[in-house]
From TrEMBL:
Pfam family name, one: OMP_b-brl_2
Domain of life: Bacteria
InterPro entries per record: Beta-barrel_OMP_2 (IPR025665), OMP/PagP_B-barrel (IPR011250)
Signal peptide: none
Biological source species: Aequorivita xiaoshiensis
Name used for this protein in its record: PorT family protein
Ranges where the Outer membrane protein beta-barrel domain occurs: 19-169
């Protein structure tokens, strides 16, 4: 974790000397999350909060890079056919490449990887009348894609779709992965 933070700081210091703009701010919003790959559990989307900070650089009128550090509540809820819960909390660190659709315009698309570090997990379920308690994996890797719009006075709206690549649990019989939509509003100080 320390190596990742040091690497990101060095990246921004080095890149900032060649960039036109530096961006720093806060964001907050809501996640609509579920777990795919566990079809027999009949899971539904659940809501959670997402809050954190972001930093970015803009290399040209159309290309930029943004790194976030986000407290993120994710998981799924069960339908009436099952019982239990999937409540997971992560420190997510997405690194997204931003592409502005028109020169000097505020609408952009973004894509990149995300690493999530598990903060808290509550994974309990009943499958075929037997109780299963599983521990969440310490890290979660996901792909991120989305859109955003930079309003005047530093206001920013973003919508992202996150699709898990790694399994969320160490439970060998099932391999569930995150999928969620994140909607945030942010404020850039710079």
């Amino acid at each position: 974790m320390k190596k990742l933070i040091v690497t990101v700081i060095i990246l921004f210091i080095g890149v900032n000397s060649y960039s036109q703009e530096f961006d720093l701010g806060v964001k907050a919003g809501i996640n609509f999350s579920n777990v795919y790959g566990l079809d027999k559990l009949n899971l539904e989307y659940t809501e959670g909060i997402v809050v954190g900070v972001f930093a970015g650089v803009k290399f040209s009128d159309r290309i930029g890079l943004q790194v976030d550090a986000l407290y993120s509540e994710q998981g799924a809820k069960f339908t009436s056919s099952g019982s239990g819960k999937f409540d997971l909390t992560y420190l997510n660190v997405p690194v997204v490449l931003k592409y502005y659709l028109v020169d000097d315009q505020p609408l952009y698309i973004q894509v990149g990887p995300q690493v999530g570090f598990l903060i808290n997990d509550d994974l309990r379920t009943v499958i075929d009348n037997s109780s299963v308690n599983a521990a969440g994996n310490d890290t979660d890797i996901a792909a991120v894609m989305g859109m955003g719009y930079d309003f005047p006075y530093g206001i920013r709206l973003e919508g992202r779709f996150n699709l898990g690549i790694t399994s969320i649990t160490d439970y060998q019989l099932e391999s569930g992965r995150h999928k969620y939509i994140s909607l945030t509003i942010g404020y850039s100080f710079l």
